[in-house]
Amino acid sequence: MSSILTNNGAMVALQTLRSVNSNLAKTQSEISTGKTVATAKDNASIWSISKVMESDVKGFQSISDSLSLGESTLAVASTAAEKITDLLKDMKATIVSAQSESANRATLQTDVDKLRDQIKTIVEGAQFNGVNLLKGTESMDLLSSLDRNSNGTVAVSNIIADRNDLTTSAGKLGTGAALTAPTVSASPVANTAKTATLTIAGSVAIGDTFTFKVGDTEVSFAATAATVANVATGLTSKLNELGLSGLTAAASAGVLTLSSTKAFDATALVASNNGSGTSTLSATTIAARAETVTFGTTAVAEGDGYRVVLGGQNFDYVAGKGETMEDVARGLKGVIDSAKVAGISTNVRLDSATNQWSLQIDNNSSTSRTLTASGAKGGTATGGLQALAGIDVTTKANAQSALANIETLIQSATSAAASFGASSSRVSIQNDFVTSLTDTMKTGIGSLVDADMEETSARLQALQTQQQLAVQSLSIANQAPQSILSLFR
């Protein structure tokens, strides 16, 4: 049946043309945008996932920029610390030269001062974008990653780069809770020889041989009379003939008294006899002349400060981050040495039996000085190179102290350089990872939303052909009602 009101063929052709035009419009959109999913209407789920991942990519790009900035900051600090280490080694060579009696110490001190000033200049200038990792103790936190969980929440990860204070600034003792005070061996510190008394007991036979070992030196005496006094006098003469530094002997009846003015070394005494007599000598030790400040074995926290009061003068050292009791002991040594108190010299020692560090303080002057020690929390850390300010080689005693202190300073600078290097390496590795991860995420996003241009191009050609055919079909269908006119001619 033919109808002039309803043209079924035209309607079918029109629907086909509309479908082709819709597909053609979508294909042209893919070609112009390069994406199969350009808007949420195209595929809401894929579009949502891609936008979340794109936001993560932008976040990682910002993280990479931050890591690059941190890497540059660490590189500056590492270079500065390494240069400071080299300068301290040069200073050590100068200090070693000052140990010689014939050295021109005034000229050598000038060299020390120039090196010290150069180190200070490097510390002040070792900054990048206003951040100086050689000053202060607060760590530098670098955002290193965004960690997206399966539930959609996001957490952040950080790389912590420690500062290493290489300034010469003095610490400030806190007013917080009191720390367990270091133990002081005695007070005052005075130029008084330490003594040990040995009593020769029992019978002595002529010809009995007595062997007496003082430290690493050994003497022997064969009794010429059958009395303990003869043995005491004979051993005394033998010991004094040796001229041992800081050690003298005296005899009274059967008692042998040894006196030592050795500042930091105890002297072990071991005696024995070989003969028909029954006389014996006991073993003992002469303590070092220096008094000791012995520290505990507890952990040290940042801001823990310790004070030694010597002759009414305060000497403070406040620990920085990650420091130990060894650092405290060596730090106090540097502070005291820097003050150049007349006759005062110091030494640091570890007791292997108790694992405790102690600071020995010796007084070689005629003025005795009281000695006390205390500790408190909440202080401002002392600069890692504080002792550098007091390096002095103008006298033999000062040069000897400087040699011990320079080793501590070199260790501080070396540790700082190593710390910066390790942090820099980690930041560099993380930055490389973030860059690679960003590229991988971009590839993943592209696989979700990017159009396959080869396929799209082929589809475009097909749809354009379909469009032309659909137009022809619609034209033919629209002409069908015209044939009805022939029925009325």
Automatic annotation (TrEMBL):
SUPFAM superfamilies: Phase 1 flagellin. Belongs to the bacterial flagellin family. Residues 4-137 form the Flagellin N-terminal domain. The keyword Nucleotide-binding does not apply. The keyword Secreted applies. Keywords: Bacterial flagellum, Cell projection, Cilium, Coiled coil, Flagellum, Secreted. This is Flagellin. Signal peptide: none annotated.
